[in-house]
């Protein structure tokens, strides 16, 4: 499969003579930016360039990266990214820049393809443990050499990404259970799970100056599922709320027990979902996918994965949305006795 479906044509740009301090958060939020000089692209700058090159101007922080073609295959581009140490690359066709490509978009597609085709994902997860562990080693080295508050914020974000990736790998390495056992899951604590999900997005919330309202009960609430898997479903909804809420917008997360269930709602006052897209929202590679309010890209798989997880563990999933006003997703968990608790 070539990378054409994953090329982001709505890329972020910065001027070559911008001060790094002024555009640092923009680059972090978008995973990279095309650098322009006299309105012409001269390269691509990433967060890693900023960390490893301590200069004041964007042009001085640029590093050489391979150019890729839309006809290159996903494995080829992933190898280029590994060799260059960059998770974002520029895509050219006939020497003309047509967009950027992100590692996360391709790896998300690969993970979903493996799951749906019942390939033995444990072998893949095992092979990923070493590069994931190496990534943490690099983060620790950078942490020892950087002292600024902005740099420490970057390091904290990288550590959170490592923890999530490591948890996913560990989950994939668990022995496979029968369908009946998998569907039943374990007893999970919803309030602590939500708090962990909220903590993971704090930097993204700050980058877009979004107001976050969190209304959670003080007592523990128990339901059924598998903590890391259910967390993935919630993360997908929160990520969408962030993508489709404008800067200085608002996201509200609530949870409350009612009649043997716990109702979790995640609402935003973002751009909403047009009526024509609603019937296709949970389809795999849905045609309802759109760029976020700051140009964030989507593969159209997140809500499809969320729906599958909810169906697996008997979580009722619904949504309401009005275009230009916002969207609310509802997750209805059946309550469980305390039993065997799984915390994040």
Walk me through this protein's architecture.
There is one protein chain. With 344 residues, the chain is α/β, with parallel strands linked by helices. It folds into three domains: 4-102, CBS-domain; 120-172; 179-342, Heat Shock Protein 90 (2-Layer Sandwich). It has twelve helices and 13 strands. The protein has helices at 20-30, 47-52, 58-61, 74-84, 103-116, 121-145, 149-172, 179-184, 190-200, 202-207, 227-243, 302-312; strands at residues 13-15, 33-37, 40-45, 88-93, 96-102, 186-189, 211-215, 222-225, 250-258, 261-268, 316-322, 326-334, 341-342. A hairpin with a 2-residue loop joins strand 9 (250-258) and strand 10. It is an enzyme of class 2 (transferase). Residues 61-116 form the CBS domain. Residues 123-337 form the Histidine kinase domain.
């Amino acid at each position: 499969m070539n990378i054409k479906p994953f090329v982001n044509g709505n890329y972020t740009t910065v001027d070559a003579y911008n001060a790094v301090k002024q555009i640092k958060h923009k680059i972090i939020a978008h995973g990279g930016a095309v650098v322009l000089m006299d309105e012409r692209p001269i390269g691509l700058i990433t967060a890693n360039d900023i960390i490893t090159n301590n200069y004041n101007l964007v042009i001085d922080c640029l590093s050489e990266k391979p150019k890729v073609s839309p006809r290159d295959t996903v494995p080829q581009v992933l190898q280029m990214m590994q060799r260059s140490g960059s998770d974002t690359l520029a895509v050219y066709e006939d020497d003309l820049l047509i967009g950027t490509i992100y590692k996360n978009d391709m790896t998300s597609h690969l993970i979903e393809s493996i799951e749906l085709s019942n390939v033995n994902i444990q072998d893949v997860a095992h092979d990923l443990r070493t590069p994931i562990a190496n990534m943490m080693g690099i983060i620790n080295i950078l942490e020892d050499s950087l002292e600024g508050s902005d740099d420490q914020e970057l390091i904290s974000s990288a550590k959170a990404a490592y923890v999530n990736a490591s948890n996913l790998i560990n989950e994939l390495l668990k022995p496979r259970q029968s369908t009946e056992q998998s569907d039943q899951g374990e007893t999970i604590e919803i309030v602590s799970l939500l708090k962990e999900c909220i903590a993971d997005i704090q930097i993204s919330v700050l980058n877009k100056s979004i107001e976050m309202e969190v209304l959670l009960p003080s007592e523990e609430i128990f339901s059924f599922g598998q903590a890391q898997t259910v967390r993935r479903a919630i993360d997908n909804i929160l990520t969408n709320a962030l993508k489709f809420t404008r800067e200085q917008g608002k996201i509200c997360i609530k949870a409350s027990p009612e009649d043997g269930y716990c109702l979790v709602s995640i609402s935003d006052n973002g751009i909403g979902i047009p009526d024509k897209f609603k019937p296709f929202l949970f389809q795999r590679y849905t045609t309802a996918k759109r760029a976020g309010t700051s140009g964030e890209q989507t593969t159209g798989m997140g809500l499809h994965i969320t729906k599958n997880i909810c169906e697996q563990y008997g979580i009722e999933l619904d949504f309401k949305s009005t275009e230009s006003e916002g969207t609310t997703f509802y997750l209805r968990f059946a309550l469980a006795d305390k039993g065997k608790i799984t915390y994040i």
